[in-house]
Design a protein that fits this description.
It is a single chain. By secondary structure, the chain is of the alpha+beta class. It has 4 domains: 3-167, Serine Threonine Protein Phosphatase 5, Tetratricopeptide repeat (Alpha Horseshoe); 238-299, SH3 type barrels, CATH 2.30.30.40; 349-426, Ubiquitin-like (UB roll), CATH 3.10.20.90; 439-491, SH3 Domains (SH3 type barrels, Roll). 31% of the residues lie in helices and 18% in strands. The chain has 14 helices and 17 strands. The chain has helices at 3-18, 22-30, 37-49, 53-66, 71-83, 87-100, 120-133, 137-149, 156-167, 187-191, 235-238, 336-343, 370-381, 408-412; strands spanning 106-108, 117-119, 243-247, 266-272, 277-282, 285-290, 294-296, 349-355, 359-365, 388-391, 401-402, 419-426, 439-442, 461-467, 472-477, 480-485, 489-491. Strands 6-5-4-3-7 form a 5-stranded antiparallel β-sheet, with no helix packed on it. Strands 9-8-12-10-11 form a 5-stranded mixed β-sheet. α4 runs antiparallel to α5 (71-83) and α7 (120-133) runs antiparallel to α8.
Length: 496
């Protein structure tokens, strides 16, 4: 089935849902050969709406297999498992959805064709309910308290009511996805499905013959002797602000004024600051992105991007520039005194240097609780807090381990000059059967001066430790551990 046929059937099915004909919509969806992840998600939503839980589970399984980073698909499958009273599997899917949020308050799927925002606080809300169904009331309370850190004003009351219910060990209401809200095909692509008559009806617009009523093409006009006129700039490009740039690396924002982008996105740079941060526009949103994550795009050469696959990147990955102040690039009218004040670190904060597979630092308020510290580190290493162990020494022994029962005052008393060093260890997952190791073979040599990167030579075997994002992996090779570009390696098929 061609892409146009798939697009046409997808649009017809969504139109049927809009007018309430769910059976016909489901029939059209199921007739699509090789559906993509979004279409599988839509099929699962319709089955869930019709209380066909087995079929819904299979559809969401298919959606996740095709896109393992689709958080909303994990969320919907978690709801399906909850309705089937398979609470442990439901809890697992809600945890996966929360992990896919990568520490963000929400994911807005509008740009992907789904009019829905998945909130982290709602995912934690459902995690708490699954824990409550399993009788783990303390963990349920912990998840709801954690949800307060990700709350928005319109979600606060629901979280408070759920927290009150857990204190009385009473169940509360599940947060559900509106199943009639589906992924829709790109409206620009759908518009191209309509047949167009580019010639139209002939009409005389100019003639050298007086009172010409010729009904065919206009008579020939005198040739222009001057140089040819410069081609008109396309309206869609001329209407956009800024200079077009291609995104080279994924950027995950850490503040509200930064903008999330992934490789391949086209952004328009409005202004570049001296601190290497650029104010850009992407999908009608405006925010800050490191300029060294971008590459200038020449519109006249844009068509050359489709001339086959490019070679793997050879330059070092960029580092995140330091933010010298909390003001955005558009606030250039602020006084120098204000910027200097914002740039100074808070006097009551501590710098915690963390040794992990790579070394990094986080800033926490002086006298912080264990929950604050573990949450900061959890976001940096992209692991759930329950899979992290902290210690004051390289070896996590009894006296050096930092956990929820540790007297944090004694920990902070070790700080000198506003700094302290801790070690972070990832706990092994204990979900039953041991996990099989995944190995890669290096297609190209990779050398980097960055301490967190893993260097290797062509032909080396690398053991996968974790998936950082779609472009970077974390692995171990020749006794060393670090991150490396996925484009440089190829997975080794598992031995039988």
């Amino acid at each position: 089935m061609s892409f146009l046929d798939t697009l046409r059937q997808w649009d017809e099915a969504v139109t049927c849902v809009d007018r309430g004909d769910l059976s016909e919509a489901l029939r059209i969806f199921l007739s699509i050969q090789d559906p993509n992840s979004k279409i599988c998600f839509d099929i699962g939503c319709l089955h869930l709406l019709k209380q066909e839980l087995e079929a819904a589970e299979k559809a969401f399984d298919c959606s996740i297999r095709k896109d393992e980073h689709l958080a909303v698909a994990f969320f919907q499958r978690g709801i399906t498992f909850y309705r089937k009273e398979r609470f442990e599997e439901s809890l697992g899917d809600f945890k996966r959805a929360f992990k896919a949020l990568r520490g963000n308050q929400l994911i807005d799927y509008k740009a992907l064709g789904l009019q829905y925002k998945l909130y982290a606080c709602e995912v934690l809300h459902n995690m708490a309910l699954s824990e409550a169904q399993l009788g783990n009331w303390e963990k349920a309370q912990e998840n709801l308290v954690k949800a307060l850190d990700f709350k928005t004003e319109n979600k606060l009351n629901a979280i408070d009511r759920a927290l009150q219910s857990t204190l009385k060990q009473k169940l509360f209401k599940l947060v559900e996805f509106p199943s009639k809200v589906l992924f829709k095909p790109n409206k620009n692509y759908v518009a191209e499905l309509e047949k167009k008559d580019y010639l139209g009806k002939a009409k005389v617009v100019a003639s050298v013959v007086p009172q010409d009523i010729f009904s065919g093409f206009a008579p020939l006009q005198p040739q222009v002797e001057d140089n040819p006129v410069r081609p008109k700039e396309p309206e869609v490009l001329r209407a956009l602000e800024g200079e077009p740039h291609t995104v080279l690396f994924e950027f995950v924002p850490e503040t509200s004024d930064e903008l999330a982008v992934v490789p391949g996105n086209i952004v328009f740079v409005l202004q570049k600051g001296a601190d290497n941060w650029a104010s850009v526009v992407f999908n009608e949103r405006r925010g800050l992105v490191p300029y060294n994550y971008l590459e200038r795009l020449e519109i006249s050469l844009a068509s050359k991007q489709n001339e086959g696959l490019s070679a793997p990147p050879t330059r070092e990955p960029p580092t995140r520039p330091e933010r010298k102040s909390d003001v955005t690039l558009s606030d250039n009218n602020n006084s120098e005194e204000t910027q200097t004040k914002d740039a100074r670190p808070a006097e009551d904060s501590l710098i915690v240097k963390v040794h992990f597979t790579f070394t990094f630092a986080v800033s926490v308020p002086a006298g912080s609780t264990y929950a604050v510290l573990i949450e900061k580190i959890s976001r940096k290493v992209n692991l759930p807090s329950d899979r992290i162990m902290l210690s004051l020494t390289a070896e996590a022994k009894d006296l050096s381990v930092i956990d929820a029962d540790t007297d944090m005052a004694s920990v902070w008393s070790r700080a000198g000059g506003g700094r302290i060093t801790v070690w972070c260890h990832a706990k092994e997952e204990t979900d039953g059967a041991p996990q099989k190791e995944i190995h890669f073979v290096a297609l190209h040599s990779y050398e980097s001066l960055n301490p967190e990167d893993l260097s290797f030579h062509q032909g080396d075997t690398i053991t996968l430790l974790s998936l950082v994002n779609q472009d970077w992996l974390e692995g171990q090779c020749n006794g060393n551990t670090g991150i490396f570009p996925a484009a440089f390696v190829e997975e080794v098929p598992p031995s039988v």
